[in-house]
Amino acid sequence: MIQTALIMIGVGIFAGIAGAILGIGGGMIITPILTLGMGLNIKYAIGASIIAVIATSSGSTIAYLRDNVLNLRVAMFLEIATTIGAIVGALLTGVLDPKYLYLLFGCLLVFSGWNMYRKLRRGQEVLQRVEPDKIASKLKLNGSYYDKAEMKTIDYQVENVPAGFSVMFGAGVASGLLGIGSGAFKVMAMDTFMKMPLKPSSSTSNLMMGVTAAASATVYFFNGSILPGIAVPMALGILGGAVIGSRIMQVLPARWIRIVFIPIILYIGIQMLGKGLGVHF
Amino acid sequence: MQEKQSATATEMAQVETIIGRILQVGVVLSAIVMGIGLVIFLVTGDSGYAGHTVPLTMAAILVGSWQLKSYAIMMLGTYCLILTPVLRVVVSIYAFYKERDHLYVAITTAVLIILMIALAIGLTGK
Questions:
Q1: Does the keyword Transmembrane helix apply (chain B) (predicted)?
Q2: How many CB pairs under 8 A join A and B?
Q3: Nearest-by-Cβ selection for A221 from B19, B34, B78
């Protein structure tokens, strides 16, 4: 029993660090460890991973808010899209064939991975236009953050707000319908479509994930998907890991984070395309 | 323009500080409650319930926590953790209101209402 608790704390610390740095929920890391590694029923694994997402989000957001890395207005504005999407997704369960959604999102993620690779090769992280985007200015979405790796304040502009909003709506539908955390989609919407730098994108994604997950977490909480003996030590580990991760992320060069992010986003994308085409691997 | 932008920046810093503090309190509180439950569970080796039963109603969790049953306390801590993002949205409305940013008071209120609808659908639907 103590052994299980220690393993879960360790898994949690790892998932928390990775999740906080990349802006993705711990679900991607937690679910395979719990199902394949520990032989846990998928129902409990999903319950645990939902708690993992919230723990990652809340644990990392404390530092990201204090250090001004994330963009609160972008988060609030886009949360309208993710929360409505989550409701639509939940209502569409059984109506819409998830196959098409897997295909659509698989393609989007692969596209985004390629786009990130191009960004990496160009070495250009921040968008500066002469003419700022009208919608972004009206909504006061343009922001700045202090990059601890480059030791300077970086001002950035946001563009393609409608496209980002649409992708976020889709991310919400996906999380409601497919039960996935969709942190990767959130980073993609901000980084690829709205042209935000990677650090504000991943920290803002972290902040938003918690809100999206909180809605579905209540369902899992009361239907018995949460095993306290597993979920609690894991959540404690994640909170600690996320606090550490949110500090590491700020001193890492954005380039390195991108290098880690690209294979992950491609992996999730290809896995989804596989699911859409009915191929399992 | 420059002046306006820096005013927006200071405003955001204040809003972020308020939200960050509250979030920190929520996270620390849930971590303490979860931690107490976990320690009781590991020390006594007793979940407080027969077999693999987990208390699933709010009433059972509160009563169990009062009786220092470890699973009940752990579930209570987990529930506090689930509420932290919701708390964050609520505090954001207040923070934006205090900074007189009416556009974002409206946007954040909309998010909270949608979130409540989602919670209601979740509780009754599945």
A1: yes
A2: 157
A3: B78
